[in-house]
Amino acid sequence: MRILLTGRSGQVGYELERSLQGLGEVVALDRAGMDLSNLDQVRETILGLRPALIVNPAAYTAVDRAESEPELAMRINGEAPAVMAEAARRIGAAMIHYSTDYVFDGSKPGPYSEDDATAPINVYGRTKLAGEQAIEASGIPYLIFRTSWVYGARGHNFLLTMQRLARERDELRIVADQTGAPTWCRTIADTTAHVVTALQCAPAQAGLNEPRWREKTGLYHLAAQGQTTWHGFAQTIVAHGSSIRKPRVLPITTQDYPLPARRPANSVLSCDKLIREFCGLPAWDDALKLCLE
Ligand SMILES: NC(=O)C1=CN([C@@H]2O[C@H](COP(=O)(O)OP(=O)(O)OC[C@H]3O[C@@H](n4cnc5c(N)ncnc54)[C@H](OP(=O)(O)O)[C@@H]3O)[C@@H](O)[C@H]2O)C=CC1
Ligand SMILES: Cc1cn([C@H]2C[C@H](O)[C@@H](COP(=O)(O)OP(=O)(O)O[C@H]3O[C@@H](C)C(=O)[C@@H](O)[C@H]3O)O2)c(=O)[nH]c1=O
Ligand SMILES: [Mg+2]
C-alpha cells in the first residue's frame, strides 16, 4: 500500500520516514513537495498520488508566533487536515494525524482522557483542535494521536534548547508549575508503526485493511508514561550532561516567565486507551536516557 507522509523534515516526520519503511511504499514530502498553506496543492497532490494511507505530522508548531499569525496557523493546522480528509474520502484512504495536549485548558487535577472536554487557551491549541474536529467529521477511517512535549536529537525542542543554554549560562530559570510528559519523537514514530502493523497484518493486506481501521477509528492519547514539570525535565537533561560545569536549575513560576501564548498548567495525558488497544509506552525518563545516549 502507498503511504503519503508529510513533514518529513520535522521531529516526528523524520522518525516516521524510517519507522514506516516496510509497511508500504512511503512517499515522504517536505514543504517544497506539498505546502500545507496551499490548500489546492494539498488536494491535488493527494488526488494525484492516491495513497491508501495519509500520515500527517506536519504542523505549524511555533506556539508563541501563532498568537500573531492566527490565520496562517489555522490554515496549516485546521484547514489543511480538513482538505486532506476530504481528499482521503474521495479516494478511500485512511488518515493518521497528530495533535496536542494544548487542546486542554490544564485545569483538571489528574490526567486527561480522550473523552475529557477540550478548551484550548492559545491560538495553536485552537487550530490543532479544529484539525481534529475536521478529520472526525469527515467520516473517513482515521487515528488521531494526541501527544505532548515532543523532543529529539534534531529540530527545535526543549531538550536542545536546554543543552545550548547549559553551555552558555551558569543558571537556568525554568517554570516548575506546568506539568506534563516529555515524549521522544522516536517513541511516537515507533508506536505509530506498531499500530499500523496491528491494523494491517490481521491478515496481511496489500491495500488498506479498511474494516480493521474502521473498528479502531478514533482519538488516542500517545505520550511517554509518568509526569514531570519543565523544571524537572530541565534538571534531568542537565544531570545527564557530560560537561564538568553544570548550571544551577532554578524553579520559577509561569508568571516569572512571560510569553505571548498561555500554556496549560496540567497537560498530563492518560494513555490507557492506546495501551489497552495496541501496545505499551515507555516511561519519560527511560526514553530520555536512551535519546541522550
Ligand atoms: N513539538 C511538540 O512539542 C509537539 C508536537 N505535537 C504535534 O505533533 C506533530 C509533529 O510535531 P513535530 O514533529 O514536533 O513538529 P516540528 O515543528 O518538528 O515539524 C513540523 C513539520 O511541519 C512542517 N511544516 C510546517 N509548515 C508547513 C507547511 N506550510 N507546509 C508543509 N510543511 C510544513 C515543517 O516543515 P519545515 O521543516 O519546512 O518547517 C516540519 O517538517 C504536529 O502535529 C504537532 O502539532 C504535539 C504535541 C507536542
Ligand atoms: C527556554 C525556557 C523555557 N521556559 C518555559 C517556557 C514554557 O512554559 C516551557 C516550555 O517552553 P517551549 O517553548 O519549549 O515549549 P512549548 O513551545 O510551549 O512546547 C509545546 O509545543 C507545542 C508544539 C506542543 O504541542 C506542546 O505539547 C508543547 O511541547 O518552558 C522556561 O521556564 N525557561 C527557559 O529558559
Ligand atoms: Mg516552542
TrEMBL record:
Cofactor, free-text remark: Binds 1 Mg(2+) ion per monomer.
EC number(s) recorded for this UniProt protein: 1.1.1.133
Necessary cofactors: Mg(2+)
Keyword terms, alphabetized: NADP, Oxidoreductase
Pfam family, one: RmlD_sub_bind
Known pathway: Carbohydrate biosynthesis; dTDP-L-rhamnose biosynthesis
Molecular function in Gene Ontology: dTDP-4-dehydrorhamnose reductase activity
Domain RmlD-like substrate binding, first and last residues per copy: 1-292
Reactions catalysed, as given in the entry: dTDP-beta-L-rhamnose + NADP(+) = dTDP-4-dehydro-beta-L-rhamnose + NADPH + H(+)
Key word Transport present: no
Family as reported in the entry's similarity comment: Belongs to the dTDP-4-dehydrorhamnose reductase family.
Functional note: Catalyzes the reduction of dTDP-6-deoxy-L-lyxo-4-hexulose to yield dTDP-L-rhamnose.
Protein name as it appears in the record: dTDP-4-dehydrorhamnose reductase
Organism: Noviherbaspirillum album
Gene name for this UniProt entry: rfbD
